[in-house]
Write a structure and sequence with these properties.
The chain contains three helices and seven strands, in the order E-E-E-H-E-H-E-E-H-E. It is an alpha/beta fold and 156 residues long. Strands 3-1-2-4-5-6-7 form a seven-stranded mixed sheet. Strand 4 (66-70), helix 2 (80-89) and strand 5 form a beta-alpha-beta unit. The radius of gyration is 15 Å and the shape is globular. It starts with a strand and ends in an 11-residue tail after the last strand. 33% of the residues are buried. The mean pLDDT is 95. The structure holds iron/sulfur cluster. Residues 31, 33-35, 38, 40, 71-73, 99 line the site of iron/sulfur cluster.
Length: 156
């Protein structure tokens, strides 16, 4: 099995309660959304199909037990469900940074969801998959809100 990948790198986690920890990032290619402030447009196209084994070899080489699967929208590729399960089987601590458009239901429960809830100014609030919020587990998942203004009436 393979995934279309934009980049794989080792860095320091910059967001969530895991900020400051060394973290390997697997940035997958493609996103069905178009948030107005997106800083990852370079992930929308291109990328490279890489076999799971090759990805695991690179991650094992980093020697870092925390991995974030991000994008783009990481859950938009169907093979990602198997990939996440295999990461968990390998005893990695796995974070999934998702834009909330795709259902988190099939994601391995050992992985932690970082749910980026799209606020009105993103231009994509109507595409939030609301059942994802009901699936959040307070003891391990997290939410992120990028807020540009106080125009909350847009939700009305
Ligand atoms: S969900 Fe993320 S990657 Fe996709 S358009 Fe929005 S900010 Fe960009």
């Amino acid at each position: 099995m393979d995934l279309r990948v934009t980049e794989i790198f080792l860095s320091i986690q910059g967001e969530s309660s895991h900020a400051g920890r060394p973290c390997s990032f697997v940035r997958l290619t493609g996103c069905p959304m178009r948030c107005v402030w997106c800083d990852s447009e370079y992930t929308f196209w291109g990328g490279q199909k890489i076999d799971f084994d090759e990805i695991f070899a690179k991650l094992d080489g980093f020697g870092c037990k925390l991995i974030e699967v991000t994008g783009g929208e990481p859950l938009a590729q169907k093979n990602v469900v198997s990939f996440i399960r295999e990461l968990c089987d390998r005893d990695y601590e796995v974070l999934i940074e998702t834009g909330g458009y795709v259902s988190t239901e099939p994601v391995d429960p050992r992985a932690k969801i970082i749910l980026d809830v799209k606020c009105p100014a993103s231009g994509e609030a109507e595409r939030n998959h609301w059942p994802n919020l009901e699936r959040l587990r307070p003891e391990m998942d997290e939410v992120k809100f990028v807020v540009a203004d106080l125009d909350y009436w847009a939700f009305a």
